[in-house]
């Protein structure tokens, strides 16, 4: 499992701004968080409980992938906009990380905005960071975030509805409540 997580970390480290795509981002999320956070912990729990009958099905695996992507998107969003909530000042922009926000911005940006993003993203200069955030605001990235989370929720709940084993389905429903912050 650690090697799979290391693959995700390596993918993230070697990806340059020109290579930031949704496909690459999802690969990073699946490799970095999917196995470590969901598949590994669930597999270990079922083995320790001697409930191999609850082993991860392909459908549950797809649910875990969706949750890993959602978790990564939420983490990226909070890194940029969550300082008032988390108290943590994020540094993804300064570090030039492959995030959902920059990928979304690059897909929607004008030529001028892309030029600014390419010159400012990955800079530790506060003015450059503010330029990136300003472009995020101009492009409506916050609204796109809400729409993306909603779409992810729909895909995930559809996958869960297809899980035959009731215990596994309930477990996945519980995870959805946690990650989508549903009461």
TrEMBL record:
Transmembrane segments: none
Upper classification of the organism: Eukaryota, Metazoa, Ecdysozoa, Arthropoda, Hexapoda
Protein name: Farnesyl pyrophosphate synthase
Keywords: Magnesium, Metal-binding, Transferase
A GO MF term: dimethylallyltranstransferase activity
GO cellular component labels: cytoplasm
One GO term of the biological process aspect: farnesyl diphosphate biosynthetic process
Pathway connected to this protein: Pheromone biosynthesis
Organism from which the protein derives: Henosepilachna vigintioctopunctata
Lineage: superkingdom: Eukaryota
Cofactor(s) it depends on: Mg(2+)
Gene3D superfamilies according to UniProt: Farnesyl Diphosphate Synthase
PANTHER family referenced in this protein's UniProt entry, alphabetically: FARNESYL PYROPHOSPHATE SYNTHASE, FARNESYL-PYROPHOSPHATE SYNTHETASE
């Amino acid at each position: 499992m650690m090697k799979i997580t290391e693959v995700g970390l390596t993918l993230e480290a070697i990806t340059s701004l020109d290579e930031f795509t949704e496909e690459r981002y999802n690969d990073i999320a699946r490799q970095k968080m999917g196995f470590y956070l969901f598949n590994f912990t669930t597999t270990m729990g079922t083995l320790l409980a001697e409930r191999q009958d609850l082993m991860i099905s392909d459908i549950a695996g797809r649910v875990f992938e969706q949750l890993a992507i959602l978790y990564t998107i939420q983490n990226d969003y909070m890194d940029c906009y969550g300082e008032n909530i988390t108290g943590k000042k994020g540094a993804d922009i300064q570090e030039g990380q492959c995030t959902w926000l920059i990928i979304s911005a690059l897909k929607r940006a004008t030529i001028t905005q892309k030029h600014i993003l390419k010159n400012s993203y990955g800079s530790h200069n506060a003015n450059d960071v503010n330029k990136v955030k300003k472009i995020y605001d101009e492009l409506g990235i916050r609204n796109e975030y809400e729409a993306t989370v909603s779409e992810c929720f729909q895909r995930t709940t559809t996958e869960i509805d297809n899980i035959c084993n009731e215990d596994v389905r309930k477990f996945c429903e519980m995870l959805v409540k946690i990650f989508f912050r549903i009461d």
